[in-house]
Design brief:
By secondary structure, the chain is of the alpha+beta class. It has 10 helices and 8 strands. Strands 1, 2, 3, 4, 5, 6, 7 and 8 form an 8-stranded antiparallel beta sheet that branches. Strand 2 and strand 3 (180-189) form a beta hairpin. It starts with 8 loop residues before the first helix and ends with a helix.
Length: 365
């Protein structure tokens, strides 16, 4: 019964091989062009840091290429669908398949099976490679390409609140009582929210309780005076656990780690709608490759001699790009709380699956 959904093994292999070859060709071309453009804009900033050279340029490429592959793989599948079906239709191969008794869904089945395999590979690649490289690159970018501290779990640009007071740290590394903040600025504010004193320190460590600023420089607003201070303990109510959950980068975490951090944030009473949406999107995102053959298949059917092949290809491309627009818009609405996270992540996929199937059924004749 399952075999009846596909054409002959020879034809299935022929279509799948054409499809995979075009996906790889389009993907390599897109990644090379976009990486070259990004290098033109970022190489100056990388080399501006003392000690950075060719090794750092290559490291940037190594960290950035996986993200480009993950981002543009669905686009590559869409364009490969058009580049596969266009010549097949132009050379009347699709008409020959239909004349041989194959339905439109059977013609499309090898591409859908290939796209499903690509979606599975994409999910595994995102969770094992892309998440780690994206998190590292984002941290390195926020540090303006200065060396990343060797401690594991380093986060950048962390802001904390202790009542009315605010702590800003350029990096936070370590965990538990070994948590270390670097390049720390402490703003002491009055009940009205006005800053009355600012303390700057190169490092803050957990003092159990509170955080010990190492030889901070203090600025008092009322006296407009700056003075050097000895080690100072601040924020006795702020714990390492609170510091650990202040910032979560969904793009830089795999689905398991992100799920654990969402549970911790929820247990602490934090709002997690944005992270919930991104957690679900880690599953629905790779599946977008499965939609592309369905949306682009409009270019496969219809007579080439009718003169509408170009129009069909444009319609297929428009449907594919419309999906990405709607998907990003729905995710943004979910981040703002307008949509539930589950709806924001899955509604575009289900909607365009229905649209693609409707277009296929209406145009196969």
């Amino acid at each position: 019964m399952f075999a009846a959904l596909f054409p002959s093994p020879t034809l299935t292999w022929y279509l799948a091989r054409l499809f995979v070859g075009r996906i790889l060709g389009v993907l390599v071309l897109l990644v090379l062009v976009l990486q070259a453009l990004q290098l033109l804009s970022e190489s100056g900033d990388i080399l501006a840091v003392p000690g950075n050279g060719q090794a750092e340029i290559l490291r940037y490429v190594q960290l950035n290429v996986p993200a480009l592959i993950a981002r543009f793989l669905p686009y590559s599948v869409l364009l490969a669908t058009l580049f596969t079906f266009w010549p097949l239709n132009q050379n009347s191969e699709v008409i020959a398949m239909r004349a041989g008794g194959l339905s439109a869904h059977q013609v499309l089945a090898p591409l859908l099976l290939t796209a499903a395999a690509i979606s599975a590979i994409s999910f595994a690649f995102n969770e094992t490679v892309v998440a780690k490289s994206t998190g590292t690159l984002k941290l390195w970018t926020e540090l303006r390409y200065y060396p990343i501290p060797k401690e594991t779990g380093t986060r950048s640009n962390v802001y904390l609140r202790d009542g009315n007071d605010i702590i800003a740290a350029r990096t936070v590394s370590g965990s538990g009582e070994r948590t270390v903040m670097r390049d720390v600025t402490y703003y002491r504010r009055d009940a009205g929210g006005m800053v009355i004193q600012q303390l700057r320190s190169p490092q803050a460590t957990y003092a159990a309780p509170g955080w010990k600023l190492q030889a901070p420089t203090g600025f008092t607003v009322a006296a407009t005076a700056t003075q050097k201070l000895g080690d100072t303990v601040i924020s006795p109510n702020l714990t390492p656990a609170q510091v650990a959950i202040t910032k979560t980068d969904a793009d830089g975490e795999n689905i398991v780690t992100l799920g654990r951090k969402i549970d911790a944030l929820r247990a602490a009473g934090r709002r997690t709608d944005e992270l919930d949406g991104k957690w679900w999107h880690k599953i629905s995102g790779p599946l977008s490759a499965l939609l592309m053959p369905l949306l682009g298949s409009v270019a496969a059917f219809g007579l080439a001699r009718s003169g509408q092949l170009l129009i069909r290809a444009v319609v297929g491309m428009a449907l594919g790009f419309a999906y990405f627009v709607v998907d990003n818009a729905a995710l943004a609405m979910g981040n703002f709380g307008s949509y539930p996270p589950l709806i924001a992540a899955w509604a575009p996929f289900l909607l365009f699956a229905l649209v693609g199937e409707t277009v296929l059924v209406r145009t196969e004749e």
